[in-house]
Amino acid sequence: MGKITRIVSASLLAATTGTLGFNWSKWITPLVEPEYVLSDSVQRVQLTPGEDGLRERVVSWVSGADRSGDSLRLFCGDSLLFQSGPFHKEIRTHGGVTHVQRVTIPSLAAGLYPYTITSGEGVEAYRDTLVIPSDTLQTFVLIGDVQDTWGDDTRPVMDSLYRAHPDAAAWIQVGDLIERPHDQYWRRYYDAFASVAPRIPLITVIGDHENEAGLMYDVDDRWEYVFDYPDNGPEERVGHAYYIDYPDMRVVCYDSNSLFWSIGTQRPWLERVLRERRDHPFLVVCAHHPVYSGTKNRFNPLNNTLLGPLFRRCGVDLVLAGHDHIFVHDRDPDGGGPHYIGLSTAHKTYSVQEPERHVASESGARYYGIMTVTPETLRVAVCREGGTLLDSLSVSRKGLR
Ligand SMILES: [Fe+2]
Ligand SMILES: [Fe+2]
User: Which of the ligands is closest to the CA of residue 211?
Assistant: First the structure.
């Protein structure tokens, strides 16, 4: 594609996603991934939820060699409950080779389940325990942009959140999980999330940093094959947009990076999956780019004009986003509509524009949220790193308001 075409298209894309004050070199020229070599051992074990977010799990692991001969064994106490070999995918990037192995576990009842990954020779290579929470109360840890780079010291933050909520139903992260789609930054992610990734599933969305730099938003294969989300998304965005159901909540995730090209498929899909559960107790929507931006020179016109009103019409309770590297809580201009929460858990911070316009806001630190969901109430508490409570909200079950 010619350079002029790329620049014109990138300008349209920037207008669409609202990032006007960006670094052109990061958008136009992909940064070359340094060479890397992974060891042959089982590493980077990661859980994701199935469509039944309470009971279904997918376990993935990574290695430098083909480990498709491995076997995942799941136990209930000392009894073997389930055993399966993995799906396998070899991913070649500019920097090297990553082998992804993945097993989908059948529906489980509440409890703790030890599991092992065993080599084809019968040698146990990994052992951990996953948790299935109760069906009457679920806790979700909410994380904003991370983009960990060397020296960010993110792991203690994640370790303390895991220790405080060891039986969380899921962690929900709103994109820009990694700084760039390079192995060195994936390594930073797995190092930072080492305590939680093998035990509690991650719900995440695609941020601009999960894509190769350039105008077409080419999502990193390592994101696509490790995070194996349900195939219930819209045409051409299956796996990138999806929903997860809990007993009292539907979580709908869409790809806000590619709206310029995919609004025609993502918007009707969003309307369908939100409307079919409109009478369900709680609806939560997640995307990387916010409906209301709280930082200078950023706006997201498609999110704001086409999707914000849809979320209100469909009775969405909470919209989670990131990208702006601040904490912000917004409502629609008349004070109604969903609660819009923007979070950042990154070292990099921007400043809040016009703080008086927001229900609550802050910048200059890392933030997280704790969401609890019962049949009657959805509650969110937003805290600054260290645990200082900044904001809270509570939404009652539909029909009880
Ligand atoms: Fe970001
Ligand atoms: Fe971003």
Answer: 2
